[in-house]
Amino acid sequence: MSPIFFILITLLLTSIVWSVIFLMAWYTLGKKLYALFWASAFMCSACQWGTILLQPYFESDVTYWMLAVSFSMASVLLGTWGHCIRTRCPINMNYLLAFAVITFAAVYYFKAVNVHVGLNMSLYIYYDIILLFINAIIILKHKPKSLPAEIGAAVTYTVCGLCLFIAATIALMQGAQVNQAYLDLYILINFITVPTAHVGMAVFIIFIMASDLAQEMQKLAMTDVLTQCVNRRGFYEIGQQKLETQLSCEQHVSLIYWDIDSFKNINDEYGHAGGDEVLIQATKRVRACLNKDDIFARIGGEEFVILIARDSELKAKQFADTLRTTLASKPIEYKQQCIDVTASFGVISIKCATTQIDKAIDLADKALYIAKHEGKNKVAYAVPLN
Ligand SMILES: Nc1nc2c(ncn2[C@@H]2O[C@H](COP(=O)(O)OP(=O)(O)OP(=O)(O)O)[C@@H](O)[C@H]2O)c(=O)[nH]1
């Protein structure tokens, strides 16, 4: 029996296994739609290898070829669709579908109407190659800093695309009729690279899903459930890093420590649920005033810190007063009742990138203590940390 038969059997079985794995990943890892697309992509791949294995049983060579071609194109298209969904890439899938239909029609034309072996063997592979390159770009471009799994997947897609490009070009070089020498070379390159690329792509996609999950978990571990702010642990982890980057970008950095005034009284008057609602609404109001890069953390019951960077020292200093007036501007509604809320603020300017964030928090906390002692609903400034 030809070794190609065994390679095809291996490809068929591994495609089925990958499809089942992606189906299970869809079920267990939060029913992400893109996992379903990848499961279908590998199922189409299995159908493609199955069709090739069953070639001797087809009465019409055109039917056999067009079926194998459609499974190959569907597999790459569904895989790409999955990546587009995961990365929220704005590519209009209708264009890729239309491109697939045109390629399919062209392959049919050169297979059944005006026979040209080189073209009917290579055109659909060129379609697959273009999609593989698109995949690599989508995966790398959607975030400023790609995950190692994404880099690995993009490299695998690119290498696979390049190998297929060589194989397709050799197939095309046959011209209108079969050329045995080119055909043998095509088969050699194809069957050396396809199994490795196949396994490589599947493993990297699984690795991407695991990395996404790890990132989600890490985000959850650093998020306060009630207010959706960063929690104490998260602030210590990202605050220091942020401080260094912002100061190196010549930004003016301030740390604001604030605390809702007489929160115990709010709890006593409106109950714990009322207190929780105040925390939620107050943080929403504050968040609406922040820039995208500011870090907003809840580090205690009704105590928060914000690390901001502004292009002038005055803006960075005055920002706490904007927050104070915003919070006090109107009462918070809770069960048809109005709760007046104010907060006190301690602010410290940080000028040196090596400043330890916990030292800055300590000094801002001392300033907050002064604001409380001066009658609450106030902003107090600590001596800047040089
Ligand atoms: N509703 C609610 N209350 C909380 C939460 N965490 C802490 N608290 C309450 O917040 C209150 C904080 O009270 P204090 O530390 O005395 O502070 P305060 O009443 O705001 O007084 P000042 O800070 O001096 O203005 C306590 O009664 C805590 O039980 C929470 O997640 N939800």
TrEMBL record:
<dbReference type="InterPro" id="IPR029787">
    <property type="entry name" value="Nucleotide_cyclase"/>
</dbReference>
<feature type="domain" description="GGDEF">
    <location>
        <begin position="251"/>
        <end position="384"/>
    </location>
</feature>
<keyword id="KW-1133">Transmembrane helix</keyword>
<feature type="transmembrane region" description="Helical">
    <location>
        <begin position="36"/>
        <end position="58"/>
    </location>
</feature>
<dbReference type="InterPro" id="IPR043128">
    <property type="entry name" value="Rev_trsase/Diguanyl_cyclase"/>
</dbReference>
<feature type="transmembrane region" description="Helical">
    <location>
        <begin position="152"/>
        <end position="173"/>
    </location>
</feature>
<dbReference type="InterPro" id="IPR050469">
    <property type="entry name" value="Diguanylate_Cyclase"/>
</dbReference>
<feature type="transmembrane region" description="Helical">
    <location>
        <begin position="6"/>
        <end position="29"/>
    </location>
</feature>
<keyword id="KW-0472">Membrane</keyword>
<dbReference type="GO" id="GO:0052621">
    <property type="term" value="F:diguanylate cyclase activity"/>
</dbReference>
<feature type="transmembrane region" description="Helical">
    <location>
        <begin position="185"/>
        <end position="210"/>
    </location>
</feature>
<dbReference type="InterPro" id="IPR000160">
    <property type="entry name" value="GGDEF_dom"/>
</dbReference>
<feature type="transmembrane region" description="Helical">
    <location>
        <begin position="64"/>
        <end position="81"/>
    </location>
</feature>
<protein>
    <recommendedName>
        <fullName>diguanylate cyclase</fullName>
        <ecNumber>2.7.7.65</ecNumber>
    </recommendedName>
</protein>
<feature type="transmembrane region" description="Helical">
    <location>
        <begin position="123"/>
        <end position="140"/>
    </location>
</feature>
<keyword id="KW-0812">Transmembrane</keyword>
<dbReference type="Pfam" id="PF00990">
    <property type="entry name" value="GGDEF"/>
</dbReference>
<feature type="transmembrane region" description="Helical">
    <location>
        <begin position="93"/>
        <end position="111"/>
    </location>
</feature>
